[in-house]
Amino acid sequence: MESQIFLDDALTVADKLVLKSLVEDIKEVGPLQDADDGTDRDSGIEVQSYTDGSDADLNGDEARRWNKTAQDIAMLKAMGDVQSDQFQPTVLLSVDDCSRHVPSAVSKYMLQPYIGLARKVARHQTDVVMITHLLLYLCTTVPSAFLLYRRFSLLHGLVHGTMQVYYMGTYTLMMHQHIHQRGILTKRLAVMDRLFPYLLDPLMGHTWNSYYYHHVKHHHVENNGPEDLSTTIRYQRDSIRDFARYVGRFFFLVWLDLPLYFVQTKRPGVAMQAGGWEILTYVFYLTMAAHSAKATFFVYMVPLFLMRLCLMVGNWGQHAFVDSEEPDSDFRSSITLIDVASNRFCFNDGYHTSHHLNPLRHWRHHPISFLEQKQTYAKEGALVFHDIDFLMVTFSLLRKDYERLARCMVPMGDQVGLSVQGRIALLKRLTTRFSEEEIRDKFRQKMT
């Protein structure tokens, strides 16, 4: 056997259930022998068949698998249901159940009162973790930035920059929830909910409201199609040169391209808002630089440069594999990752296909939706990977390390019959640049 599914102990409870469910589906197929035409049909997954080949055993095992999937779905739903005895809010991203990791006295007199209060403050009672992170940023990032402007030191600047690099990914995906759900705080705190991004966004590398206008008002409208400013289809996705062009265009021209896009799509009001907030943020940077250029570099410029780079690195990985047969399908133009970095620390960002299928879906519902629709994912030829995040998907492509990507694949449906070399061939086909003629042909309706 050529590879095996790696079940990381650090995966979330939901991810473990999803990955185990997919492994059970692969086991159902069992070790496949070489086909008569000489094609290697070995799935490359170290699993044993549960069946002896009889129809009775197959049907019984299939029923058992789907019953287990239904139980997993019910359990995950119960964990998010405030009326259920199994309700479990997310308090910290690093662990699933905080109360099991602290002394009972600490849980009773500190943790549980905090959870009770935070549940009243959060938009969704499951999202205590977002209150936790807001407090974390307000108690670390904000005072650190303030002190840098009061008395700058290079060491403090380096420590602050390092801290922000650690925070930026989680904060961005928290704000991803914010812009899609129109907030993360209870509606009674709507004013605070609207205002805190103006303080924290620039500290985390975002210009004011740019994430909302680019991601919600633009990216999810165009959906990686030809008019999407961050589309990948015009680029060879394993080419360093094409990637540099892709990043450079966004890095230097998004401030102009995005308002022009809204003008071209007959939304001049949105164009003025998007461009206005971008320019206003630059004015703010200049104002702060006049007070202390050194502090501004570490507090605002370093996060800005890194964030814009990481956004493009991430988006490249999210939409690197596009099927030329049906490039406007969410199943065939985005991928799903089951990994620690994306899902434990970034609010299930790995379920990118699920997010495109329903941008308003709450982050904790993605694994549930995946399990409910996994037959459709398999039928549609969706790609699922494990033990790799979006940044490493991009880096693996730029190194043309298709073998690593193939071994990280969790095959579904017809993919189970592919060897590692077969998966490599599939992935290479899906990263091929679209010609303008192909784009006009495949996206004819969108472009008319």
From TrEMBL:
The chain crosses the membrane at residues 128-149, 155-174, 243-262, 282-306. Residues 31-60 are annotated as: Disordered. It holds the Pfam family FA_desaturase. The keyword Metal-binding does not apply. InterPro entries: FA_desaturase_dom. GO terms for biological process: lipid metabolic process. Keywords: Membrane, Transmembrane, Transmembrane helix. Residues 165-383 form the Fatty acid desaturase domain. This is Fatty acid desaturase domain-containing protein. It comes from Ophiocordyceps unilateralis (Zombie-ant fungus).
